[in-house]
Amino acid sequence: xxxxxxxxRDLVAEQAAQxxxxxxxxxxxxxxxxxxxxxxRTSPMHVAEYLAIAGVxxxxxxxxxxxxxxxxxxxxxxxxxxxxxxIHAVTRESVFDMFSPYEYRVRTRARHxxxxxxxxxxxxxxxxxxxxxxxVTTAMILGLRWFTSRPQVLNYATSHGEQRSLQLPDNTxxxxxxxxxxxxxxxxxxxxxxxxxxxAYFEVAKDPARPFGVRVGGLLIxxxxxxxxxxxxxxxTTVTVTEGQVQVWPVPPASPRTxxxxxxxxxAAASSGRPLVDLAAGHQARIAASxxxxxxxxxxxxQATAWLQGNIVFEGESIAAVAAQFNRYNNSQISVNxxxxxxxxxxxxxxxxxxxxxxxxxxxxxxVHTRTLGRRIIVSGRTAGKHRD
Length: 389
Known about the structure:
Shape: elongated
Number of strands: 18
CATH architecture of the largest domain: Sandwich
Low-confidence stretches: 56-61, 67-71, 77-117, 140-149, 261-272, 385-389
Strand content: 25-35%
Radius of gyration: 30 Å
Order of helices and strands: HHHHHHHEEEEEEEEEEEEEHEHEHEHEE
CATH class of the largest domain: Mainly Beta
Structural class: alpha+beta
Helix content: 25-40%
Distance between the termini: 52 Å
């Protein structure tokens, strides 16, 4: 989607939300109802965005039920009216700014009639009735068809060192780690999220009618009422379950046209007809990019998801691996130049952004030396008589 198209859709969605709030609060007068109908007829995009927020059975249905004229009478009113309304340029002004010019035209016309108030009122009521009937009879054919044929994909991302909390349209809670991105695509029958890079933690809202799945490359993680963490790296994907249970299935390549997995309830599985791995709470699996299961077993889930509290927890991990974790969250980057030093195992708990304390900890290890060059911290072996710069 081009930037201009995205901006236009965002603007229309904002206007639709304003209209929905106005309907909900019952603040629309006759003139405003008329302006609302004119706004809807401007474009199928307006219809689709409003239906997505309010639904046909809410405000639009209420407008239709207020109609007291017969179908034949309303169709007679339609005769001679233009049925195609051009799409005009949309501005950033509030949608309610459209009321003033319309009120001016009505009042000007009223001054030239014998019974101005009654004539203007009857004209507006007929117009609202006709517009409501046209909208209800065509919404399912035009608006809903247009909306369902072009499902929206919601994209969320974090930059280096940033974390973000999200609530998806189904009330699923998502926490994005540093330098991570997901794409969300929900429909009437499924909920699918793709982790395109980095790490995300999911607390899935229950909805038996719409299965929830997370795609990572050639894997589909099917939720069975749970909370779990997905960490996508170049060489492998790590799945950690903190509550409930998940299944990890191999899936066919994404559609070349859409870039998305087919949304079948039963994903393609291995020849055995079983998932690649079935994980319960407190268990973790690491799957290679090739689809091979590298490891599976119990894990300290609290430690594995320590990043949710802004911490880095490690036990018996190499200095190089821990340094890489710090580099995910900070502008100061740690470089381990000595392979022997980089392989030394260390344990501890640190705030993810507390680089100085971690560097001081490294400097306290016998045989390890650090020096700082701008935003780069170099870790190497300490030689006799050598001290930190």
